[in-house]
Amino acid sequence: MKSKDPIFVTQPTLPPLEDFLPYLREIWDTKILTNTGPFHEQLESELCNYLGVKYISLFTNGTIALIAALRTLRITGEVITTPYSFVATAHSLLWNGIKPIFVDIDPATFNLDPEKIEAAISSQTTAIMPVHCYGRSCDVDKIQKVAERNGLKVIYDAAHSFGVQRDGGFAEKVVVPSRALVRLPAKVDAKISAALSLAGSTAMRMLTERVTVGSGDWVLVIGASSGVGSAAIQIARVSGANVIATASSEPKKALALELGAKHVVNTSDPGWPAEVRKLTDKRGVDVVVEHVGGETLLKCFECLARGGTIVTCGATAGKEVSLNVWSLFVKQQRLVGSYSRDRLDLEATLQWAADGRLQPVIHDVMPLAKAPEAYARLRSRTVLGKLLIAP
């Protein structure tokens, strides 16, 4: 069956029109529809702060920006670029009277292959113009070294990966903005911090900000051996709650009990929600810490008491579910989302660790060279807690 609906190469992501109209009214009132308008200047200022640069110039599209950059840098002759991009990349060169020299791409990244650039350099070459494809940045370090060895300038057609962080944290050294750093308490070392900073602070936000856990409450924690789960068990226990955890194997069950869970139910049994209700005299739990989504989220409602709350921070098992709204409002239950964490959550997590109230669960520490093996172990679902990578 053939569809007549068009397939667009790109489409803008637009807000609801009613949300945009108040801004349009402000623009209309200023009578400034091009440069130097208040929103224009505000966007330039905030982009400078976000990107950590001194100057930003906004253009109506990327092609005009490339043309202006090439003229500003007085690029002439030949420029090495990629054949795998929008046609406007090469057009911006031709419109400046520059000859594009196409160099093949790396088949793994679809970006310009830095190993093949030097073979294409001639006496007429003045610059390299790579393109970051599909939100995956080029090997900028290698390209820069090639440029420096040959006295060339580098201009990136970078709109395709705006906002993407490059290199990640699997490295011997990383550079981050100072505002992203926190001081470790005296009793917290790098390993403890690495194991708790992400999942531990996520659990901290869930149980200290998004919901309230009191003494004597029943709290169900999904996935006892996960980073969020192992931290949530401890946070709920220290808060005075009775903790029920879920696990799918005997080692994971043993871990949950060691961390302070009062009971553990085996999720390999499809009827595990009934076991939770049995443990609470059919009442159900007051709070569920959920981070899986999909069918697991729906089963959590079967465990929830009247007036209870599910706080969720993940959807690895499914982003969309069919919810019984009638049961939700008749039982006056709540479904609360919790996203990430902030600086205060991170500082609280590290302080709890320093005080001995929260301990990381570290399954193993592996060298940087074995990072792929670490991922394979995670996919095997046999890891208890965290795997750390040591540079």
Provide structural commentary.
The protein is of the alpha/beta class. Among the domains are: 59-161, Aspartate Aminotransferase, domain 2, CATH 3.40.640; 190-355, Medium-chain alcohol dehydrogenases, catalytic domain (Quinone Oxidoreductase, Chain A, domain 1, Alpha-Beta Complex), CATH 3.90.180.10. Helices cover 37% and strands 15% of the residues. The protein has 14 helices and twelve strands. The chain has helices at 17-30, 38-51, 62-72, 87-94, 140-150, 190-196, 199-210, 227-238, 250-259, 272-279, 294-303, 325-330, 343-355, 371-379, and strands at 78-81, 99-102, 125-129, 153-154, 218-221, 242-247, 263-266, 285-290, 304-312, 334-337, 362-367, 386-390. The strands form three sheets. It has a six-stranded parallel beta sheet with strand order 7-6-5-8-9-10, sandwiched between helices. Strands 2-1-3-4 form a four-stranded parallel beta sheet, sandwiched between helices. A two-stranded parallel sheet has the order 11-12. Helix 4 (87-94) links the parallel strand 1 and strand 2. Helix 7 packs across helix 13. The longest helix has 14 residues, at 17-30. It is elongated and about 80 Å long. The protein starts with 16 loop residues before the first helix and ends with a strand.
